Every structure is written in C-alpha cells, then in structure tokens.
C-alpha cells in the first residue's frame, strides 16, 4: 500500500489487476479521454502496455472501500520531457501523473479530488517533488475542474500534443507547486 486516505487507498499494480484494466479500458466512457474509443485494450494489450515495459513509471490501482475502481501512475520527468515542457532548472524534482476512475458509479462523488490531493501529498512528501505536472486534453473540462480544485494551475497550452481517436488534441500543461 502506497497510501490510504479514509476510504481511498492506492497500491502498486499486481498481475491479477490486468482483468480490471481490461474491463475499464474497454469502456467507451473511460476511453473518451484515456487512450481513445478506437483503442480498446483486451488482456493481451493490457499485459503489453502495463506489464511488459521497463521504465520509471510506478503503476497503481485505486481502491475505494477495498474495491478496485481505477488506475493511477506517476513518474519522475526525464530531462527531455522537462525541456519539452519548458522547465530549465535541472535541480527541480518534477513528477508527472496520469489517472482515471474506471468505475462510472464512482464518478462525480469527490473521489477524484481526494485521489489527486492525496497523490500530490504523497509525491511532495515521500518523493520530495517540487512540482507535479499533468497534461489533460483541453476538452476534458470535468478533469481540469477537479485538478484546479486540487491546486493545479494551467501554465502552458500544448497545441496538438496528443493523438487521440485519429486527431491531434490540444492539451494543457498544468502544475502543482
């Protein structure tokens, strides 16, 4: 368990979680903003994308009342990503994060706000992050409202930075300091 905040818990991904990821990443409502509705993930694809990669991402499952409800990952930004985003202080400890709640019954209940706030506290406390960044699509208004409630602010428009459903989407670089 990485951390727990009331009914919310975040733990590292286990192989048996591939069934949850496949379920969530086959749901068009989840895929509308994460991966794309044209890119559903069966078990083989989940295993390839989430388990076969060697990188610095820490992949986790979000639980609420001991039920798996979503996914979150975090990672230190590499030098290339820092430059791309416009960060020039190489001594800054910058983390990125991405997440989704895969169980629609848990949407619009404040769980996303609790999750993002708790993860930011974990990253700034346990990982000594100076800055935490995300890059949501500009059209994902619900997520952006959540992130702004958690203290993130828009710092830079990233034009046509994410290929999603066959079209390049604009994203916001948002940060928590």
TrEMBL record:
Domain of life of the organism encoding this protein: Bacteria
Annotated GO MF terms: N-acyltransferase activity
Alphabetical UniProt keywords: Antibiotic resistance, Transferase
PROSITE patterns reported in the protein's UniProt record: GNAT (PS51186)
UniProt-listed GO biological process terms: response to antibiotic
Domain N-acetyltransferase: 8-177
Entry annotated with the keyword Cell division: no
Cited Gene3D superfamilies: 3.40.630.30
Cross-referenced PANTHER family: LYSINE N-ACYLTRANSFERASE C17G9.06C-RELATED
Protein name per the record: Acetyltransferase
The organism's taxonomic lineage, starting at the top: Bacteria, Bacillati, Bacillota, Bacilli, Bacillales
């Amino acid at each position: 368990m990485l951390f727990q905040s009331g009914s919310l818990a975040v733990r590292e991904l286990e192989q048996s979680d591939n069934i949850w990821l496949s379920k969530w990443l086959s749901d068009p409502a989840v895929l509308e903003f994460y991966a794309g509705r044209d890119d559903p993930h069966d078990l083989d694809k989940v295993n390839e994308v989430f388990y076969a990669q060697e990188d610095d991402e820490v992949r986790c499952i979000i639980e609420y009342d001991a039920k798996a409800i979503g996914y979150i990952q975090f990672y230190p930004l590499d030098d290339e990503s820092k430059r791309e985003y416009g960060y020039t202080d190489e001594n800054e400890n910058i983390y990125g994060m991405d997440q989704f709640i895969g169980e629609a019954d848990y949407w619009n209940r404040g769980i996303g706000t609790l999750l993002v706030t708790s993860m930011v506290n974990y990253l700034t406390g346990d990982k000594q992050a100076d800055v935490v960044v995300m890059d949501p699509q500009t059209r994902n208004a619900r997520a952006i409202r959540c992130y702004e409630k958690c203290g993130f602010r828009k710092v830079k428009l990233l034009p046509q930075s994410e290929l999603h459903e066959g079209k390049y989407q604009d994203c916001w670089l948002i940060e928590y300091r």
